[in-house]
Amino acid sequence: MNGGMDLGDVLREWIEPALAFLPASLNTPARAQLVLGIGNKETQYRFLRQIGGGPARGPWQMELATHDDMWRNFIRYRPELQSAALRLLAGTTADARLLTTRMDYAALMAALHVYRSPVSLPAYGNAVAQATFWKDNFNTKLGKGTVAGALPFFQQAVKVMA
Fold first, then answer.
1. 100-109 residue pLDDT tens
2. How far apart are CA 142 and CA 11, in angstroms?
């Protein structure tokens, strides 16, 4: 199913290092697993730009407006998150264009997007709950994706972290 990068490599090289910058309460296996599954569903870690020329960027397909809104209305009001992101960036200015060039930053932004959701984080190992979270919080109710269609991608993420 995943024709892109090895999911274990994505986890070890991008997601875990990014989440290590977060407060310990946010750096959890459940969050890492969900972020891994979201990227797997969105791009199978094969694409950095939305197919068809849409606004989404990076493996997690974050829209540029979402990135900017997160900084303007969420991250800047949470010093511990702002500090985490700025430490990861190590002097580089936060910019939506980094979603296609800094995979650790793209992973961190996906994890913060997950944190921003009012919906509780799905349980570790629960691929159905993770696929449902993705549908409701990333794809949205108006999106073309379905929980059933997303489920195999989240099952892969669960298997990688088992």
1. 999 999 999 9
2. 29
What pLDDT score was predicted for residue 143? Answer: 81
Query: Which DSSP string do the residues of 1-39 spell out, in sequence order?
Result: ---SS-HHHHIIIIIHHHHTTS-TTT--HHHHHHHHHHH
Both tokens assigned to 154: 């989240």
State the DSSP string of 84-149.
HHHHHHTTPPP-GGGGGT-HHHHHHHHHHHHHHSSSPPPPTT-HHHHHHHHIIIII-TTSS--HHH
Residue with token string 């993420």: 157
Radius of gyration of the chain (CA): 14
- The pLDDT value given to residue 140: 77
> By the 8 A CB rule, do 105 and 99 touch?
yes
- Whether the per-residue pLDDT at 1 is higher than 70: the answer is no
